[in-house]
Amino acid sequence: AGEIAALLRSRGALFFDEIVSGTRRLVTDVEQGLRELIAGGWVASDGFQGLREIAGGSRSRERHRRRAPRGGNYLRGGMFAGGGPPGRWSLVRAPEHDPNLADEYEDEVAEATAHALLARYGVVFRDLAVRESFTIPWRYVLRALRRLEARGVIRGGRFVIGVAGEQYALPDAVTLLRDVRREPHDGTRITVSAVDPVNLTGVLLPGDRVPAQRGRTVTFVDGLPETAPAPVAVGD
């Protein structure tokens, strides 16, 4: 996000493909960076469709990509050749130009990122967060989590045994963890898509890593991958 803001400040309003080429970042990184800048009120688009596709997340982007012609998005040498959301993007205010605004921007984006992680996983810690494509460093997210704990919004503690570092959880997630721990194992089987965030096999859960690819699935038995040799202990 910082690189995009700096590019827009130096060159003015740019189309999506110009931002990709100017930052030399992956398309998904630029999309995420723009989403963070939109959330903080730092950028605007001259067209509603482009703003909707970026702010709408993966579903809007997938609809756009299905409409876009196959191939031709990259030139020889890996340069991006268009096909992104329409419209030009420009800065409303420049976070990196003013130290006070920079601090405000970091706090806003970090807290938004913390809320997104908590909504997705319920329990958040470094090893889980770094799997995501957020461009803001973990240390800023960690400070945001500490602030949320101080305000009584979330809880800090040791919720997942075997994971190093600080852990934070939504109060409802803590209650669910305790309830699940008390439930008897009855062989309940649940199959989900491999792209579901719950697919943490080989990362947090035991077993071989199952790549997050469309068309692949993961089956859980009593909450564990079907081929997992042993459970992950959950603390009080």
Would you mind describing this structure in some detail?
The protein is globular. It is built from nine helices and nine strands. It has three domains: 96 residues, Orthogonal Bundle (Arc Repressor Mutant, subunit A); 80 residues, Arc Repressor Mutant, subunit A, CATH 1.10.10; 50 residues, no CATH class. Helix 6 packs across helix 8. The strands form three sheets. The protein has a three-stranded antiparallel sheet. Strands 4-6-5 form a three-stranded antiparallel sheet. Strands 7-8-9 form a three-stranded antiparallel sheet, with no helix packed on it. Helix content is 43%, strand content 12%. The longest helix is centred in the middle third of the chain and has 23 residues. The chain is an alpha+beta fold and 236 residues long.
What attributes characterize this protein structure?
236 residues, alpha+beta, Arc Repressor Mutant, subunit A, 3 domains, three-stranded antiparallel sheet, 43% helix
Question: What is shown here, in short?
Answer:
The protein is of the alpha+beta class and 236 residues long. Helix content is 43%, strand content 12%.
List the helices and strands and how they pair.
Blueprint: H1 2-11, E1 14-15, H2 16-23, H3 27-39, E2 43-45, H4 48-55, H5 58-67, E3 88-91, H6 99-121, E4 123-124, H7 126-129, H8 138-150, E5 155-157, E6 167-169, H9 171-182, E7 189-193, E8 217-221, E9 224-225
Antiparallel strand pairs: 1-3, 2-3, 4-6, 5-6, 7-8, 8-9
Helix pairs in contact: 4-5, 6-8
